[in-house]
Amino acid sequence: MTPVSRFPVPALAALPADIRERILAVQEKAGFVPNVFLALAHRPDEFRAFFAYHDALMIKEGGLSKSEREMIVVATSGANDCLYCVVAHGAILRIYEKNPLIADQIAVNHRKADLPPRQRAMLDFAVKVALRSAEIEEADYARLGEHGFSDEDAWDIAAIAAFFGMSNRLANAMSLRPNDEFYLMGRIPKR
Amino acid sequence: MTPVSRFPVPALAALPADIRERILAVQEKAGFVPNVFLALAHRPDEFRAFFAYHDALMIKEGGLSKSEREMIVVATSGANDCLYCVVAHGAILRIYEKNPLIADQIAVNHRKADLPPRQRAMLDFAVKVALRSAEIEEADYARLGEHGFSDEDAWDIAAIAAFFGMSNRLANAMSLRPNDEFYLMGRIPKR
Amino acid sequence: MTPVSRFPVPALAALPADIRERILAVQEKAGFVPNVFLALAHRPDEFRAFFAYHDALMIKEGGLSKSEREMIVVATSGANDCLYCVVAHGAILRIYEKNPLIADQIAVNHRKADLPPRQRAMLDFAVKVALRSAEIEEADYARLGEHGFSDEDAWDIAAIAAFFGMSNRLANAMSLRPNDEFYLMGRIPKR
Amino acid sequence: MTPVSRFPVPALAALPADIRERILAVQEKAGFVPNVFLALAHRPDEFRAFFAYHDALMIKEGGLSKSEREMIVVATSGANDCLYCVVAHGAILRIYEKNPLIADQIAVNHRKADLPPRQRAMLDFAVKVALRSAEIEEADYARLGEHGFSDEDAWDIAAIAAFFGMSNRLANAMSLRPNDEFYLMGRIPKR
Amino acid sequence: MTPVSRFPVPALAALPADIRERILAVQEKAGFVPNVFLALAHRPDEFRAFFAYHDALMIKEGGLSKSEREMIVVATSGANDCLYCVVAHGAILRIYEKNPLIADQIAVNHRKADLPPRQRAMLDFAVKVALRSAEIEEADYARLGEHGFSDEDAWDIAAIAAFFGMSNRLANAMSLRPNDEFYLMGRIPKR
Amino acid sequence: MTPVSRFPVPALAALPADIRERILAVQEKAGFVPNVFLALAHRPDEFRAFFAYHDALMIKEGGLSKSEREMIVVATSGANDCLYCVVAHGAILRIYEKNPLIADQIAVNHRKADLPPRQRAMLDFAVKVALRSAEIEEADYARLGEHGFSDEDAWDIAAIAAFFGMSNRLANAMSLRPNDEFYLMGRIPKR
Q1: Scanning every residue of chain F, which has its alpha carbon at the shortest distance from the alpha carbon of A135?
Q2: Which of A7, B171, E2, E12 is most buried, judging by how many CB atoms fall within 10 Å of its CB?
Q3: CA B27, CA B50: separation in Å to the nearest integer?
Q4: Can you tell me the distance from the alpha carbon of F39 to that of F52, in angstroms, rounded to the nearest whole number?
Q5: What's the rounded Cα separation, in Å, for the pair D141 and D149?
Q6: Looking at residue F8, what is its pLDDT?
Q7: What are chain C's partners, defined as 3 or more CB pairs within 8 angstroms?
Q8: Which residue of F has its CA nearest to A132?
Q9: Which pLDDT score, from 0 to 100, does residue C190 have?
């Protein structure tokens, strides 16, 4: 079995208090510590900046729902072949959407997913930012506008695709292992 | 929700007897009819040839285990962005391996999967057949040989990658929808 | 000179009767045995399934002429850099079309071939199935429809592109050598 | 002339105090405000996280010199076709290296730059993280090790390539305009 | 039938004397006027430079045989999907080599052609110049050296690949039609 | 510091008179000898043909200004990652345009450059010729026509893209070093 990360993973006790507290809080909520927290804690300053950025993009009001934000993560992480992000954010997306199928659909090929045209357009834009950002132009924003996305929404889509473009590259470089727990989360419909 | 296929899907009662019987047999065994059977039944002759070919490659003795054959399907279907094959054969692989994690690992990036060097080499070869077959050369076979694969095994790997290269293209062209059942299969460890 | 295949090629006498008969029949008709028959006969079950599938797609009534079916083979085999299929099916196409130029035109770049818009559209679709099947969508089918192709025709185009995508990968993996006879066939106009 | 960004650029006076102070500090040091500060200030939380991350990676002790860190930025930004980052970080690199040629060399093709093998290996790794991160494996780290890079250095290289992969995508999406001042900086050798 | 070129093709009588004479000379030798002469004659100065360059690379003494030079043309023109150059230079190669098969083999996939290791190495280098010239490095020259190629030979290989890279782009842009005569030339072994 | 070329560079005194004179003339005008002249002089016949072709395309009347011709060189050389051509022709473009910014903008990403729609369309066409010439079709010419380009202008654009496609491959293969002088030329606005 591959380790959490090919880089050293610090013991919780050895971490600065603020990082340990964030980790304990997420553990309390999720029931386990997602490996990205442990792996990035090897570099406390980068950990703090990473999660500050993450929260600024993912936990906020705005035109995109929390679930749509996770769709962007899953689609672009699939395009970047990032195991950690596909598995971990796929779990979150299933829970938000209460849909056990949607994450695999979007990760493999968002064009074949059960999505309305609005979300298809959102993911087309996100995947273009992920794979061919130099070719983004005003016509791409216009297409988003036709589906009701404001310019602020477009920034969000681009920024999430860009941030997880970083995250995907970090996870690939460190061979970040998804926690076993993620694979099953959100797959069994609650009654 | 997207349909089973963008092409017509025949009613079971309208099918030739041999095809109906095969479908009923698979239904008996699996508890449901995988959509690929229904979608391909639109063309009975192609249905017969497809499953004859499938069986010749996937159900046989030889140097590759049944589970290794499914690994090849999942890795190459991931490389070809084929939703149906990733989801359906991912399910089969989880069951064969009694491992709820391995299919997602291989589908997203086989290089990060929990695999011994032998299976890593097998999938490297399979993915090269899937994506750059014109560049296959003797050095690729030699590398397989170093991991204990015979020439007959190499044929099997190449043929499975090639057959599912066809299957992936068919499924993508017809927007073949994976059955909902596949997504959860093999994810909950039996006790 | 490279051999017929990098894998063993069975002697005709050693083959199962049905396979030997098919090979003798093709030899009678063509005057020689195309190497794909000999190379695949190494695996009788795969041989049978392969040619059953081939016949189901290539020898049938329908909206596509036999010649158009071969055009699809040549264009997609060129896109996949498959020597055997370009040379062997190029020969067949020249004979069907009674046109000594068309096969090379389509194999190198179908956009520059002497083709009416209908066949150009057919080959655009086929090459997209061959190279980027995950991106096929309804707009592609609509474009075919504008050129008079029915949905059943579209299935045929996709299925032929997919089947020869398999065939190309097999031939590349086994370094299948085209028979010398194919190179000249159909190049000298009959009077 | 294209604007600073296709998104709104806030007036300095309207900004939160901490952001305004950071901007004034950089203006004092550089003589002008790099446009990335103004463009990102449209989103104060993202601004803060972005620069915290930037500083954690770029302003620190470690095995990589400040100049080597900028080389990574320039090489990967060139690979991602990001005008802002090539021009702005090219300027910084010229100044750090006191070399008016090195930035253009690295941005266009780092293989042709006046670099010792150590820095060539560093940039090969960085560009692989930028373009094919899913294929990074232990052999890549071993090659870095042969050139004297520690594992912590390798993290730095990967993290800088990943962070600017994000930055490049943001800049491309917002059409971030490099300040005119950057183009000439560091090109005229001081005496 | 597509025309010789999508641009105007001048009448022979209207051409400057030196160009007309070159064309008449080639017609005397070949029995017809290859279309590239007619199409480029639309621009006399470019015509003169093009053929001066062509002759400097293709008609000269040196470590490469005339036939090897044509192999480079055919392999790189295949890689660039250039119909005119594959067909016209394929004909010349067949005649030089007295081999009716070699041109199609090299055009479709030089790795599968009946070639000794020396010529395989030559074409590997040529195709890399054609498709990924920015990645050419000393190791590529060393590999040529192992097969007995001098540095001057390496220049020739690179220069021929580069010149026909230009020629391929011109021919593709003008939809240059190969003369019908080329398709059959060299295919019927002389006795 | 890398040398002028990985191939021998002849002494001026050893050159044929016509070549020496051309080199002395360019030295008189530019104040130095651009390295491409020295490197190509290793092969006098190729030198003569190269510059004859260059002059036929770059020094002429016609619908494209001299500056637009250099834009094409810079954009396509950027697309081909050619250090020499980006740096040397970037210098010439800055001087022609009296614009110290335009060359870097076009070399990194012409879509983000300060250009009117006409020149954007010109560079889109040129970059398509450089990277995907087999896909050029009448629709591309029609788009040029909408921006006022004649068919003769279109030939010029394609021919310049093709010629520098050759030049880029030569420069990359020989590791042609740009003269230090080019880097600063045209960057300091004259008053």
Answers
A1: F111
A2: B171
A3: 18
A4: 16
A5: 9
A6: 97
A7: A, B, E, F
A8: F109
A9: 67
Q: Tell me the DSSP string of B72-107.
A: HHHHHHHHTT-HHHHHHHHHHHHHHHT-SSHHHHHH
List of chain E residues whose C-beta atoms are within 8 Å of the C-beta of residue B135 = 111
Under an 8 A CB cutoff, do C137 and A109 touch? no
Write the DSSP assignment of C104-160 as a string of letters.
HHHHHHGGGSS--HHHHHHHHHHHHHHHHGGG--HHHHHHHHHTT--HHHHHHHHHH
Tens digits of residue pLDDT in A45-79: 999 999 999 999 999 888 999 999 999 999 999 99
What are the b/e assignments for B78-102, b being 16+ CB within 10 Å?
bbbbbbbbbbbbbbbbbbbbeebbb
Strand, helix or coil at C9?
Answer: coil
Determine phi and psi for C179, rounding to 5 degrees: -60, 140
Hey, CA dihedral for A55, A58, A62, A66, is it positive or negative? Answer: negative
Buried b (16+ CB within 10 A) or exposed e, E89-123: bbbbbbbbbeebbbbbbbbbbbbbbebeeebebbb
**How many CB atoms neighbour CB D142 within 10 A?**
9
Secondary structure string (H, E, C) spanning D113-133: CCCCHHHHHHHHHHHHHHHHH
Contact between residue F76 and residue F46 where contact means Cβ atoms under 8 Å apart: no
Is C in contact with D (3 or more beta carbon pairs below 8 Å)?
no
Residues in chain A: 191
Q: What is the rounded distance in angstroms from the CA atom of residue E111 to the CA atom of residue E106?
A: 8
A98: left (phi over 0), alpha (psi -120 to 50) or beta: left
- Shortest Cα–Cα distance, D138 to chain B (Å): 11
Q: From the first residue on, what is the mean pLDDT of each consecutive set of 10 residues in chain F (191 residues)?
A: 95 96 96 97 98 96 95 98 98 97 98 98 98 98 98 98 98 98 91 57
Which string of b and e fits A86-124 if b means at least 16 CB within 10 Å?
bbbbbbbbbbbbebbbbbbbbbbbbbbbebeeebebbbb
**Global confidence as pTM:** 0.97
The token pair at D59 is 């302003």
Partner residue facing D49 (CB), from A7, A49, A173: A49
Residue from E106, E110, E111 whose CB has the most chain B CBs within 10 Å, to mutate: E111
Name which of F46, F67, F79 is nearest F170 in CA terms.
F46
Chains with at least 3 CB pairs less than 8 angstroms from chain D: A, B, E, F
pLDDT 10s digits, D17-65: 999 999 999 999 999 999 999 999 999 999 999 999 999 999 988 899 9
**Using the beta-carbon criterion (under 8 Å), do D81 and F175 form an inter-chain contact?**
no
Identify residues of B whose CB sits under 8 angstroms from chain A CBs.
1-2, 78, 81-83, 86-87, 100-101, 104-105, 107-109, 112-114, 172, 175, 177, 180, 183-184, 187-188
Please name the member of D49, D138, D155 whose beta carbon is closest to the beta carbon of A52.
Answer: D49
User: To the nearest whole angstrom, how far is the Cα of D107 from the nearest Cα of chain E?
Assistant: 12
Burial call C75-103: b when 16+ CB within 10 Å, e when fewer: bbbbbbbbbbbbbbbbbbbbbbbeebbbb
Query: How far does CA F144 lie from the centroid of its chain?
Result: 21
As to burial, measured by CB atoms within 10 angstroms (0-12 exposed, 13-18 middle, 19+ buried), residue C138 is: exposed
The residues of D whose Cβ lies within 8 A of any Cβ of F are 1-2, 78, 81-83, 86-87, 100-101, 104-105, 107-109, 112-114, 172, 175, 177, 180, 183-184, 187-188
On whether the CB atoms of residues B82 and B177 are closer than 8 A, the answer is no
Placement of tokens 């050139």 in the chain = D147
DSSP string, D40-86: HTTSHHHHHHHHHHHHHHHSS-SSS-HHHHHHHHHHHHHHTT-HHHH
